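Hi R.,

As promised on Friday, here is the backbone we talked about, encoded as structure tokens. Could you run it through your design pipeline when you get a chance and send me back a sequence?
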């Protein structure tokens, strides 16, 4: 049986939302409770329960079996849930293959991480890494032009220094030697 996961959160809290998003992206099942939406005795009882795990009663507080994780801590969650860091793996693999061809990851690591996570989400969803910035149909044949790296990347990087999603860029783009302009969509829907 899978270890039960419980999350105490606030409906208004950005860290709680980011943690939920992370757990959802990892397709992890969990129970969550927005404590700010509770009232009276129910709220008091839950706060008492949280204090046993986290005396500061801060949010989110996540209980995984008998382990407590406080705050939006993806590395700790990954470790507690036994998830390997597939994003890092993908990053290293793609970098090795693409850089010699003249395609570099955007120097903004956070942006790149989000896009790689989205590519992995699409891989789970559709069975192939559909472009995160385009609507995939779920039919690999119909979407073959937008499987990353898409067929439009070459022309986009040549003309604008960046692919449509700003994932792959040229060396000059990363070094600010060319302007960073919006890359128009080439795909005809
Ligand atoms: S636009 Fe960029 S991220 Fe999207 S599929 Fe093309 S190369 Fe990949």
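Update: got your reply. Pasting your designed sequence below so it's all in one thread:
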């Amino acid at each position: 049986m899978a270890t039960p996961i419980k999350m105490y959160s606030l409906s208004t809290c950005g860290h709680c939302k980011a943690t939920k998003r992370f757990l959802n992206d990892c397709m992890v099942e969990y129970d969550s409770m927005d404590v700010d939406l509770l009232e009276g005795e129910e709220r008091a009882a839950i706060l008492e329960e949280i204090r046993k795990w986290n005396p500061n009663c801060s949010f989110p507080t996540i209980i995984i079996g008998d382990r407590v994780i406080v705050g939006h801590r993806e590395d700790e969650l990954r470790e507690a849930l036994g998830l390997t860091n597939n994003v890092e793996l993908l990053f290293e693999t793609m970098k090795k293959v693409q850089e010699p061809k003249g395609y570099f990851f955007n120097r903004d690591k956070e942006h790149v991480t989000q896009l790689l996570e989205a590519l992995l989400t699409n891989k789970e969803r559709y069975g192939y890494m559909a472009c995160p910035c385009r609507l995939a149909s779920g039919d690999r044949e119909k979407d073959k032009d937008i499987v990353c790296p898409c067929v439009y990347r070459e022309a986009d990087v040549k003309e604008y220094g960046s692919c449509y999603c700003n994932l792959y860029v040229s060396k000059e783009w990363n070094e600010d030697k060319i302007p960073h302009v919006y890359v128009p969509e080439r795909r005809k829907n």
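One thing I noticed while checking it: The chain has two domains: 5-81, 86-174.

Thanks again,
M.
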